[in-house]
Amino acid sequence: MTEELLVVKNLKKYYPITGGVLGGEIGVVKAVDDVSFTVKRGETLGLVGESGCGKSTTGRSLLRLIEPTAGEVYFDGVNVSALSIEEMRKMRRDMQIVFQDPFASLNPRHNIEKILEEPLIVHGMGSSAERKKRVQEMLEVVGLSSYHARRYPHQFSGGQRQRIGIARALMLNPKLIVADEPVSALDVSIQSQVLNLMQDLQRDLGLTYLFIAHDLSVVRHISDRVGVMYLGRIVELTSSAQLYSNPLHPYTKALLSAVPTPDPDAARERVILQGDVPSPANPPSGCTFHTRCPHVTDECRTTRPLFQDVGDGHFVACHLYKS
Ligand code: SF4
């Protein structure tokens, strides 16, 4: 058994842009552009970046909820990119997703028992009595009660709904959970409860998480390592401790400077990024961050920096990472 549960190699997801008189393809949006990373068993890898940077598309592409344009994804040693639809359906028992908006992802006409039972029915698992028992167990595991099984999604608070979303993801006893902004829609006071629940579940059930968020302070709470995405690419990836104590990429530094710190002496100089995120349909040449980077040089405008390990598994894509 390898240490890595998930290996993602050169993943790409491009969307064609059509137009013109004949409605042909006139360009592509590079939503995910050559992304590679690994996630170890029992680890949480955080993936952060601004809205539209490709982090959610990465999560969905590796689960093949949307089909990637190119690249390979190995899960537990199996190349999932090469699986048939039926083989992939079986593989999804081990690879589940928790969505940002639990309300949108729960069928409002079904009670919780039916919602939670559904994955078991789809995969032909258990008798009716066994499925109902599993529903009761999972409700308790996520901190709800067995009587909640008869209620409907609209009868729950946002935090409770996300607990139901997590219970549904756990019904098939998966190994990997892709958590796509699982607390972004929740009040701050509820966020830490759901994050604590996810950490307890990881410890008790041996889960591996890919945790997607736009907020570095949320990711820090839960991640062993963090990857920072910008315009479809990972620009820095290292341990959580390294990222926060020794960020090397100017974009990471800018994101971190916006995170409030409880220690005023440790307050970072605020870096205000100029301009907006460029369109992924027309990304800048060279380093795609060069239009907003305070340290840009001529080389940055023409040459794409390698995404390289600069020591101890600290990866960064910047020509000036040493300065
Ligand atoms: Fe900035 Fe250049 Fe580094 Fe890109 S390569 S982040 S433009 S210094």
Automatic annotation (TrEMBL):
GO BP field: peptide transport; transmembrane transport
Keywords assigned by UniProt, alphabetized: ATP-binding, Nucleotide-binding, Transport
SMART domains: AAA (SM00382)
Keyword hit for Phosphoprotein: no
Family: Belongs to the ABC transporter superfamily.
Keyword Calcium applies: no
Name of this chain's protein: Peptide/nickel transport system ATP-binding protein/oligopeptide transport system ATP-binding protein
CDD domains with a match to the protein in the record: ABC_NikE_OppD_transporters
SUPFAM superfamilies with a match to the protein in the record: P-loop containing nucleoside triphosphate hydrolases
Domain ABC transporter: 6-256
Pfam family, one: oligo_HPY
Source superkingdom: Bacteria
UniProt organism field: Brevibacillus centrosporus
